[in-house]
Specification:
about 280 residues, alpha+beta, 8-stranded mixed β-sheet, 3-stranded antiparallel β-sheet, 9 helices, 14 strands, about 25% strand
Length: about 280
């Protein structure tokens, strides 16, 4: 049964909050700008997923792609840049240039923070070959703590951000019923040659490389939890056999925002225009 047809049941406190928002008794919280990166590797095509800790306030226990909120310093003009310009990214995501710059920087920063993979190099044609070691780890932790800005991190190491290693993919906005909301742009990136992901801890207690099909099968069997944006993106990735075909795809950015609705007396979350299978509900 597709989530777009019947909706996802919203029981308990979340269901009551949805009723209150639909009735105008509660004002939705604003959504924070964020970036998410679908990190891929070939032979076979696999995606990198993190399982968020059960103690997290948002998406607890869910398997997600690396990503997070924009840091205001991500828009810093001091960041060394190679590849498509902020103006080009602004056109792709329908935002202004400062926000486009911030989103791309947040995508690269968050990927490094949550996987150890860095989409940057000493010059516009190369990429860092190895990000392991105590010095890299100290910088990664400082970025997470926000005691080090991404611009200062790149400058200190003489690195250039490689925006050409990213592809714009999607735009999702957290439903208004949530107490934490994000206005998230999705990017695609390939694992750079020589680099490797590692279990970096922090917000995640498990990290995995898996084929999109295997992740979807586990979700439909109720073995793992995937939120609608992750489920839908994995569904899209499952039709590809190699990364180069993903990057060659002509992509038009569509905005999705699931919304609460009352159906036959029950409050459900409707995810428009996609097929999201509720675990255990069948095809």
């Amino acid at each position: 049964m597709g989530g777009a047809e019947m909706g996802i049941p919203l029981p308990g406190e979340l269901g009551q909050r949805a009723r209150d928002i639909l009735a105008g008794r509660i004002t939705p919280v604003p959504a924070r700008d964020a970036a998410t990166v679908v990190l891929l590797r070939d032979d076979p095509l696999e995606v990198y997923l993190l399982k968020r800790k059960a103690t997290m306030a948002f998406a607890a226990g869910a398997y997600v792609f690396p990503g997070g909120s924009v840091d205001p310093r991500d828009a810093d003009h001091a960041i060394a840049w190679a590849g498509p310009t902020p103006a080009e990214w602004a056109e792709r995501f329908h935002v202004d240039k400062p926000m486009a710059r911030a989103l791309v920087c947040a995508a690269v920063r968050e990927t490094f923070e949550e996987s150890g993979v860095l989409l940057a190099g000493p010059d516009p044609e190369t990429v860092v070959a190895d990000t392991t070691g105590e010095g890299w780890e100290a910088d990664r932790l400082a970025l997470i703590a926000r005691t080090l800005s991404f611009a200062d991190f790149l400058d200190r190491r003489g690195l250039v951000l490689r925006s050409d290693l990213l592809k714009a993919w999607a735009h999702w906005i957290t439903p208004e019923i949530e107490t934490r909301r994000f206005d998230t742009r999705f990017f695609i990136a390939a694992l750079p040659e020589g680099q490797r992901t590692r279990d970096v801890g922090g917000e995640a207690d498990t990290v995995v490389w898996t084929t999109p099909a295997d992740a979807l099968a586990q979700a439909e069997a109720g073995e793992i939890n995937l939120m609608p944006p992750t489920f839908h993106t994995l569904t899209e990735m499952a039709v590809f056999e190699r990364i180069d075909r993903v990057f060659a795809t002509d992509r038009k950015i569509t905005t999705f925002m699931p919304s609460a609705a009352e159906v036959d007396g029950h409050i459900v979350l409707v995810v428009p225009d996609i097929d999201y299978r509720v675990p255990g509900a069948g095809a």
